[in-house]
Specification:
Blueprint lengths: L3 H12 L8 H11 L8 H6 L4 H13 L2 H21 L10 H84 L1
Helix pairs in contact: 2-6, 4-6
Keywords: Membrane, Transmembrane, Transmembrane helix
Protein name: DUF1003 domain-containing protein
Organism: Brevundimonas albigilva
Length: about 180
């Protein structure tokens, strides 16, 4: 920004309040707009840089755990487990009602649920980052549109003023001609 006077003048013009009263996002957008700098940023890149190994692993687990591949593979595993134990009869390692299988399913659910919730929480954070970026981009676009309207209004007023001056010159010339002819 060129100086604080410009910041205040632009703030009053586009936000209707002093620069000091703007919130941080509005101030940042106003300063970048005045400096003709872009406001957009790649939120995916910014967010990906903050992910730890555990975060990336949780995202992969959640991605696989919520896929048809997982559901199909797990369905096949359950069918094989039950079929094998039923076929072995009395020598089965987990006879009907498959108590060990139920224990493994409960353990899997107990581990998988918080991992999926961690991934969903991170996705919510990313969505908030995207929303904040969208707000800034929209605010900058709105400011740019207002500035364009001001320029168009100024241009129209200048052209209208020039037209009025030209018409006044023509009226003055006609008045002078009529006055000279009437003598």
């Amino acid at each position: 920004m060129r100086n604080s006077l410009d910041a205040d003048r632009l703030s009053h013009r586009w936000f209707g309040r002093p620069h000091a009263e703007l919130d941080e996002e509005e101030r940042q957008v106003l300063d970048r707009t005045a400096a003709r700098r872009p406001i957009t940023r790649d939120t995916n890149e910014a967010f990906a840089g903050k992910l730890s190994f555990g975060d990336r692993m949780a995202d992969r687990v959640a991605s696989f755990g919520g896929s048809w591949t997982f559901i199909s593979a797990f369905g096949v595993f359950l069918a094989v487990w039950a079929g094998l134990n039923l076929a072995l009869g009395r020598g089965a390692f987990d006879p009907y009602p498959f108590i060990f299988l139920n224990l493994m399913l409960s353990t899997l659910a107990a581990i998988q649920a918080p991992i999926i919730m961690m991934s969903q929480n991170r996705q919510s954070e990313k969505d908030r980052l995207d929303a904040a970026n969208d707000y800034q981009v929209n605010l900058k676009a709105e400011i740019e549109i207002m500035a364009l309207h001001e320029k168009l209004d100024e241009l129209r007023d200048r052209q209208l003023g020039a037209m009025i001056l030209k018409q006044q010159e023509q009226i003055d010339m006609l008045t002078r001609l009529l006055t000279e002819k009437g003598r």
